[in-house]
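Structure first, sequence second, as always.
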């Protein structure tokens, strides 16, 4: 009985250590990408900051594009847990909330937190895509996923008869996609100096009016 228990314990330790290494690589890569940009961040510099060898970084992620994807995935959900955005508690709560205005506010407030984390990364990746075309696919996939999520929410409002009269699900999804976007966030927060709180307040008002007519 002792042997199997020890092997299970060792295996769990190895998995925990490997996950810790992966998290360190992602976190340090995120800091470096935002500070230096994609082109000036090397695998070697990420490895040095993470306290591992470059070979370990390649073993875990294969290449720098894969690291960028992992950095983006963590930024979207806000942690390293393997729970997709559409399965997060706040998304599920919004999709079951019967008060339409409250549901919109939940989607917007939490969505603004996502934008605050992901928008600088999208800006960095979009600039780097000029020299690394593979990064364009990451941005495009993120955009598609964002619109699909918005369409699901707007479709839920429509199914409950809460969507603004005369507004189709597709048009409502497009409006939400345009308003609650990295571009809008960067324009008002980064360029115009709005606080994140002010941006959130404004966005809640705009989305409620656009989708609910109130």
């Amino acid at each position: 009985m002792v042997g199997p228990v020890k092997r299970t314990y060792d295996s769990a330790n190895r998995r925990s250590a490997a996950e810790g290494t992966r998290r360190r690589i992602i976190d340090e890569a995120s800091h470096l990408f935002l500070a230096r940009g994609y082109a000036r961040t090397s695998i070697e510099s990420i490895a040095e900051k993470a306290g591992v060898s470059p070979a370990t970084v390649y073993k875990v992620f294969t290449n720098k594009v894969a690291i960028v994807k992992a950095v983006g995935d963590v930024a979207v959900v806000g942690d390293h847990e393997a729970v997709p955005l559409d399965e997060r508690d706040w998304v599920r709560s919004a999709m079951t909330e019967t008060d339409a205005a409250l549901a919109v506010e939940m989607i917007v407030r939490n969505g603004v937190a996502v934008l605050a984390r992901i928008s600088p990364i999208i800006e960095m990746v979009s600039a780097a895509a000029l020299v690394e075309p593979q990064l364009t696919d990451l941005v495009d996939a993120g955009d598609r996923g964002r619109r699909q999520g918005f369409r699901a929410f707007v479709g839920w409002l429509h199914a409950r008869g809460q969507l603004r009269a005369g507004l189709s699900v597709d048009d409502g999804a497009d409006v939400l996609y345009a308003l609650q976007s990295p571009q809008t966030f960067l324009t008002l927060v980064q360029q115009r100096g709005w606080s994140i709180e002010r941006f959130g307040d404004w966005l809640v008002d705009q989305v409620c009016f656009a989708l609910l007519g109130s």
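Margin note: The chain has two domains: 1-67, 83-214.
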